[in-house]
Specification:
By secondary structure, this protein is mainly alpha-helical. The chain contains 4 helices and no strands.
Length: 66
Amino acid sequence: MAYVRRRLLDRKLKEMLLHCAREAGLDPTDLAEWLYEEAGVKAQPNWRDVKRKVLYSEEVTARELA
């Protein structure tokens, strides 16, 4: 049960951080490059794919994203 709660909290934090990054004008290409370099997760350089890869990847934590 605690694992599920932690995963839900992590996912919500990731959503909020991605929203803030988008509002701040961060380029999704930069985020896609970072994902590949830090976690080995390949993503297309667009917000839809970056968001999907970040939210469903256990390799990327909200702390790393922040």
